[in-house]
Design goal:
Blueprint: H1 2-17, H2 23-59
């Protein structure tokens, strides 16, 4: 039983050390992720179109 109570005490001590992000930081991180995902998606779509055109030209279709 001593190990469990020690674990719980240590867990509580560690959780008090955690610095949670503010609403503004969460919003900024969310927008940054959405922006990066959008840019990468557009880039990959353009690369796919380009490669598809190259393959079509190479196969003569």
């Amino acid at each position: 039983m001593g190990k469990i109570s020690t674990f719980i005490e240590n867990a509580r001590a560690e959780i008090h050390k955690v610095i949670f992000p503010t609403k503004i930081q969460v919003r900024q991180a969310f927008l940054a992720v959405i922006l990066v995902v959008t840019v990468i998606s557009i880039f990959l779509a353009l690369v796919d179109l380009l490669m598809g055109a190259i393959v079509k030209t190479a196969l003569g279709a």
